[in-house]
Amino acid sequence: MRLIHISDSHLGAATLGRKIAPSGVNQREEDICNSFISAIDKIIELKPDFVLHTGDLFHSVRPTNRIIHIGLKQFIRLSEANIPVVVISGNHDTPKQRSVGSVFRIFELFSGICPVYKDKYETVQIKDAIVHAIPHCAGTDTFQGELEKIKIDPKVKYNILMLHGVIAGIPEFSMGELSEQEIASSYFELGFDYVALGHYHRNCQVKPNVWYAGSTERLSMAELGDPKGFLEVDLSAPPQELKSGRTDFQSVHLKFHKVPTREMIELPCIYVSVLGRVDPEKIYDEIEQRIESENIEEKIVRLKVTDIPSHLYNSIDFRKIAEMKSKAFYFDLRLEKTEESKGVSQYAPTKPSIGKLNFEFEEYLKNTVIEGLDKEELKELGLKYLTERMTDDE
Predict the structure, then answer these.
(1) Counting beta carbons within 10 angstroms of the beta carbon of residue 248, is it exposed (0 to 12), middle (13 to 18) or buried (19 or more)?
(2) Among residues 365, 310, 1, 298, which one has the least CA distance to residue 158?
């Protein structure tokens, strides 16, 4: 019994870049779709017994017609290859109001595709396995109530659980989104042969047979260095006993398959405090040296410049820096002031009018619900743009 565990494809997302592809759409949107298509290509080549997609197939509850077509076409390819698919909705593609309706309804029209999205626990039998699935629910109480209904079926050879959420008590698995739903680890002790989780974007193990597959492309700079792809799980593989007498589930039953993604790199940090007496030109030179040390063309790049005194920070020519980093697909330059020069904002300039605007912007973000975006990154980016556009006018 071989299955594929894939998750968090976020079709329709367009993070980390505004460039337009030859097709006329956002290039990052195209990147994210292409990684998903590459994953489906490999899955068809592997010919598993079935595929589990553990949520956030789409980045929003109202994907465009183009994105719906791409997602549906890839699932139909699996169906035509006689590979059944069970897909649950995640927090990004679950509508908060029933009147909106779910895009997952369209999958019900096609053979071999089983969508689970109706705010309830469902089971799907595929050969000699039962897949126990709970989608992201409109309410936390509903989700917890459905979790309590989970029950192993002793009549079948394999019982598999698929969920989308955060492991209770482990904040590292949180994506910082208000709509996240918690899963108590006690549900992993019910005797399942495998537990497929979605939501957390890093491929990682929770327990020997409990895994997050991770996302199929990088959605934020926080995922720098993370390989992207999907898991192949072979539950019928004969166990191999280790010297300790334990069965190593990962080496026996699991294989991670990487998919091509746009390259994301981090350049060595610049510590202004160790450069001695510096001026803006010295900072420009250091940034240029970092950029020239690596081929950044068409890559997503991050560079931190730390310990910048206020008097230097306020005289930096951001347009000059923008020219230096223009070859990158997307360049995340983080300019950080020294601790003693940080006031209300990391990017607060000396002009009171702009400082007030920075404060108002931070307060607005603090009190506004924002889903699908990293609020901290959004704040930093917004404050940087406000600083770059400083003016004497109110």
Answers:
(1) middle
(2) 1
Q: For residue 160, what is the enclosing H or E element?
A: strand 158-164
* Integer Cα distance of 281 and 139 in angstroms: 54
Chain centre to alpha carbon of residue 88: 16
Nearest to 5, CA basis, from 114, 87, 111, 124: 87
Q: Is 369 helix (H, G, I), strand (E, B) or coil?
A: coil
**Tens-place pLDDT, residues 310-331:** 888 888 888 888 889 999 999 9
Tell me which H or E stretch contains 32.
helix 27-46
Instruction: Categorize the per-residue pLDDT at 121 as very low, low, confident or very high, splitting at 50, 70 and 90.
Output: very high
Mean pLDDT of the chain: 87
d(CA 44, CA 41): 5
Other C-beta atoms closer than 10 Å to the C-beta of 327 total 14
Q: What is the pLDDT of residue 60?
A: 95
Q: What is the pTM of this model?
A: 0.83
Torsion sign across C-alpha atoms 361, 367, 371, 375: positive
Every domain of the chain and the residues it spans: 2-258, 265-388
State the Cα–Cα distance between residues 262 and 33, nearest whole angstrom.
Answer: 12
Between CA 274 and CA 308 the distance in angstroms is 11
Q: What letter represents residue 242's amino acid?
A: L
**Range name among 51-60, 192-201, 247-256 with the lowest pLDDT average:** 247-256
Overall fold of domain 2-258: Purple Acid Phosphatase; chain A, domain 2 (3.60.21)
The DSSP bridge partners found for residue 86 are 52, 114
C-alpha 169/C-alpha 191 separation (Å) is 21
Of residues 11 and 281, more confidence is placed in 11
Q: What is the pLDDT of residue 237?
A: 75
